[in-house]
TrEMBL record:
It comes from Mesorhizobium salmacidum. This is Alpha-hydroxy acid oxidase. Belongs to the FMN-dependent alpha-hydroxy acid dehydrogenase family. CDD domains: alpha_hydroxyacid_oxid_FMN. PANTHER family: 2-HYDROXYACID OXIDASE 1 (PTHR10578:SF107), S -2-HYDROXY-ACID OXIDASE-RELATED (PTHR10578). It comes from the Bacteria. Residues 1-378 form the FMN hydroxy acid dehydrogenase domain.
């Protein structure tokens, strides 16, 4: 554990411990993966101003996201199939986030259900909603998230049709994995993973199986999900979802200032500037490149969050400087989970916290909330 110093170290370990099909599922983008790469690379082009001889004592990373206190402005992003990176993955990641004081967001396409996560956490978590054609199922999901006392609903807008990730097609991605010779050979040499899986009953999409009509088993599930994303979703749907939910609402997947202005009009509490981690529209801009323009366009009409490509605490600070009030990490916590389970998620958060703290000091600031555009060299 002591030689794990970066998110890249966690990634290397996850590659060795997680079956190829699920490691690749995390480490992939749509088509040529150009947007996936740009999300990370574009952070490197942004430079800080180094400042000296200012009092750097009593530093704090604490702030709020949608009015909720966070120990640092880094939430765990919703990610599908997280319970395939590690047995009971969503439950473990939610516990790690809770202990760390940052929000955990559970995906609709999770392995552990809303109720599973609620059973092992004390503080409210956030729930991410995909709008599917089966409206009764969607209403029921919203009600289940309310019953579990989730404190925010994250409505994902950028997956009305699924972007193609070649690796998933080539690997024949499924949960649980099909027992082909290649999969058996790959899993056999990862005993930590399969022993964990053998010891849990959570091996399929538990928010869905047993809740959606006509989905009784895994075979019916795969055809159901591919047909289910609603291509007709539009701005007017945000209104009924907001009303049914009745709590804090975050709109995820905005990459254009016109859409951001539309989002502000819905009365939602925040937007997430996001391209789904480069997994949807290949060739779209990186999130960090459009963040400033969007934040400037909406001003204080709606809170702005961002995700995509954050691999260090420095990246988080750059996003804050360019107008984000909060950020999310997807792959960094998945790599931590795949590498070391709950401890690995904590490790990912600790790495980011330390990097943020040292960078803040060397920029001559004491409070994370003081980071602004003037802190960047331009
Ligand atoms: C393996 C994986 C699964 C994802 N599943 C979902 C999902 O179910 N719902 C959703 O809104 N976003 C999903 N996303 C997108 C993330 O919420 C987030 O936007 C993205 O991971 C941020 O980029 P990063 O991984 O570079 O931090 C997924 C991302 C990954 C990597």
């Amino acid at each position: 554990m002591s030689d794990i110093l970066t998110i890249a170290d966690l990634k290397d370990l996850a590659r060795r411990r997680v079956p190829k099909m699920f490691f690749d599922y995390a480490d992939s983008g749509a088509w040529t993966e150009s947007t996936y790469r740009a999300n990370e690379e574009d952070f490197q082009k942004i430079k800080f101003r180094q400042r000296v001889l200012v009092d750097m004592s009593n530093r704090s990373l604490e702030t709020t996201m949608i009015g909720q206190k966070v120990s640092m402005p880094v939430a765990l992003a919703p990610t599908g199939l997280t319970g395939m990176q590690h047995a009971d993955g969503e439950m473990l990641a939610a516990q790690a986030a809770e202990e760390f004081g940052v929000p955990f967001t559970l995906s609709t396409m999770s392995i552990c259900s809303i109720e599973d996560v609620a059973s092992v956490t004390k503080k409210p978590f956030w729930f991410q909603l995909y709008v599917l054609r089966d409206k009764d199922f969607v209403l029921n999901l919203i009600d289940r998230a309310k019953a579990a006392k989730c404190s925010a609903l994250v409505l994902t807008l950028d997956l009305q049709v699924l972007g193609q990730r070649h690796k998933d097609v080539r690997n024949g991605l499924s949960a649980p994995p099909k027992m082909t010779l290649a999969n058996i050979a790959n899993i056999a040499v990862r005993p930590g993973w399969w022993m964990g899986m053998a010891g849990t009953k959570r091996r399929t999409f538990r928010n869905i199986v047993g809740h959606a009509k006509g989905v009784g088993d895994v075979a019916s599930l795969s055809s159901w999900t591919t047909e289910q994303f609603d291509p007709q979703l539009s701005w007017k749907d945000v209104a009924w979802i907001k009303e049914r939910w009745g709590g804090k609402l975050i709109l995820k997947g905005i990459l254009d200032k016109e859409d951001a202005l539309m989002a502000a009009k819905t009365g939602a509490d925040a937007i997430i500037v996001s391209n789904h981690g480069g997994r949807q529209l290949d060739g779209a801009s990186s999130s960090i490149m459009v963040l400033e323009e969007i934040a400037d366009a909406v001003g204080d009409r709606i809170e702005v969050h961002m995700d995509g490509g954050i691999r260090s605490g420095q990246d988080v600070l750059k996003a804050l400087c360019l107008g984000a009030k909060g950020t999310y990490i997807g792959r960094p916590f998945l790599y931590g989970l795949g590498a070391l389970g709950k401890e690995g998620v904590t490790k990912a958060l600790e790495i980011i916290r330390k990097e943020m703290d040292i960078t803040l000091a060397l920029c001559g600031k004491r409070l994370v909330t003081d980071m602004g555009k003037d802190q960047l060299r331009r």
